[in-house]
Amino acid sequence: MIFLGEDFNRSTKQMIKVMMVIYGIIALALIIRFSYIATVHSITGHDLLTYSDHLEEEVLKADRGKIFDRNGSMLAINVEAYTLQAILDTSKDHYVKDKELTAKTLSGILACDEEELRKYLNKPYLQVEFAKCGRINLLQKLQIEETSLPGMIFTKRKERFYPNDRFASHTLGLVSIDELDEMSGILGIEQSMNDELDGVNGYKRFKRDSKGRPLPTDEYKIKEPIDGNNVYLTLDSTMQLFVEEALTKAYEDYGSKELIAVVADAKSGAIYAIGNRPTFNPNQRDIKGFYNNAFQLPYEPGSIMKPYVYAAAMEEGVYQGDHVYHTGRINVYGHTIHDWNWDKEANTGGWGPITLDVGLMKSSNVGIATILEDYLDLDIYLEYMKAFGFGRSTNMNLPNEKSGILPGVDQPFSILTSGFGQGMTSTPIQHIKAFSSFINDGNMVTPYIVSHVMTTKGNLVRQHEPTYTESPISKETANKMLDLLVEVVNNEEAVAGKYRLDSFTVAGKTGTAQIAEEGRYLEDEYYYSFIGTAPSNNPRLIVYVSARQVGENSPTSDMFKDIMEKSLIYLGDFEQNNVPIEVKGITIDDYTDHNVLLVEQELTSLGIDVLILGNGNRVVNQSIKKNGHVSIGGKLILLTEGNDYRMLDLTGWALRDVVSLANLLELDVNYTGHGIVYRQSIYPDTVFKEGDSLTVYLNDNNR
């Protein structure tokens, strides 16, 4: 055994101590080095942050396309709004400290009660949203900020806005907005044209450093979003306003259950206006009925069908207008058909013996039965109904159009009663199409509502052209029918005299239809309708009106006359029958490069409210384009070549006029409230430039 002794043990201990010191120095050096790297993010001049493997992608939102009327007035646009969230994480400096106070305060601002808000605030999350309650506008955001409630954060988003509120609401439609703030059409044009209006989102891909800063690497990539296309409708805002006003008055004065009005160009089929009552405000989503009754509610039309029996008989060469028949009642197929004025208790009615021509003027059911019994085979008439477009949709640019129902070939009595509008169903749009054959030499024109589609850069995507479809009757028959329909309204023996206009000659036909529910007809409740065209010597418009009404007091004649006369005057038909008409609307010319003072003088003399922006002498742009129209007292904004643009006083303006101004100047417009302007973010006479943001505050009371 070998003993190393104390010297060896002492030496070993010293060596261990030295090694421990060396290891300690190395460890300390490593700690210092790693601390340095963590602080400066660099090794020998190389930035370590550039070696991050964290690749991120940020969505670049595409804007949904806008909807315009035929004159370029905005009907649906996108505006800025906000989503409210609450921070509940107590480790943050800025969090909700008093949930009870927060719920109580927010309940006075948001469309939610205190209890519902309290449920959100008591959820076991670090941060919460308030679902629909948290979708707020700028005014609500400002109100919340004024409360100084801690823990409130706001995320900017886009919201769909309809400048005219209750205005062609069922036609324009609605959008839904999902949790990613993506819009999708769920009604009307918003739905049927969703693929055109919907844009394509882009993205931004990049790496971030530990401080969240994007890194300029080769992997940094941007794909720009593609905004949705803009859709231009055939709707005319002025004529739509005539329709809305007439419907509102009838709805309030007569207590009607349902009202429909349609205005169409008699030659092209372009739909200028469609209105319904009840209606809704798409900005408030106070919707009660989702159907656009003009094309989604087929019903038994009543006597408005009678002209097609007469036209079919004429076309077949079997009609004898001077044939005399006995009115009152007639027995066919084991059933008794009565004229509408038959008194069951007195067992009498009709008008005695009259001719078939007079029968249409009187709207005689027995006259229709006589034609279909003695002159025109039922199977032939059924084919004519199909040729006139009944029983199938018109294929216009609106979703879920209904086709109605025709009787089968094995239902002879139903075919016969369909001649006066029972035992079949149809829609107002189908009647617009069928009636157009009497105006266009026997050719039917397909109704349409989308004029054209353009990109946001102004490139034309597609243009709709008028489409003439079948010709169920000849030019000769069409002319005879139009003459007969003039008599139906204007002859002294006619029962439709209340639809006459003093200034224009109307051709048309009334309808009164019983309403079938649960297999029986309702007592004392009817669909009253009228379809007519004017001026009869050169038809410009077809107007269809109908009302679901209890009792015999119908508003349809008031509606028709108000809409037709105002619309014809607006379009420039100022005289017929040697009767001068007061001009209530002005067609706008192109004033580009004209002297602004001379233009102002000319238009002011016509009763137009002319507003000038800029300090130049010549016009470079205008709010209403050439061939557009403005009513007396309406606003026209002229932009001059000067660059000193000072904001106008917008107090008392309607929102649609503000949008027109913003569109002209390419301003980013936002709004809060409803009604007319009482405050604006860019004060009057303040200098502004294109692209600035303008917020207007609206109030029904003009406070």
Automatic annotation (TrEMBL):
Record bears the keyword Transmembrane: yes
SUPFAM superfamilies registered for this protein in UniProt: beta-lactamase/transpeptidase-like (SSF56601), Penicillin binding protein dimerisation domain (SSF56519), Penicillin-binding protein 2x (pbp-2x), c-terminal domain (SSF54184)
CDD domains, per the entry: PASTA_Pbp2x-like_2 (cd06575)
GO terms classed as biological process: cell wall organization
GO MF entries: penicillin binding
GO cellular component terms, A-Z: plasma membrane
Primary location recorded for the protein, binned into one broad class: membrane
Segments traversing the membrane: 20-38
A Pfam family it matches: Transpeptidase
Subcellular location: Membrane
Keywords (A to Z) from UniProt: Membrane, Transmembrane, Transmembrane helix
Residue ranges of domain PASTA in the record: 582-642
Alphabetized SMART domains for the sequence: PASTA
Similarity comment: family membership: Belongs to the transpeptidase family.
The protein, known as: Penicillin-binding protein 1
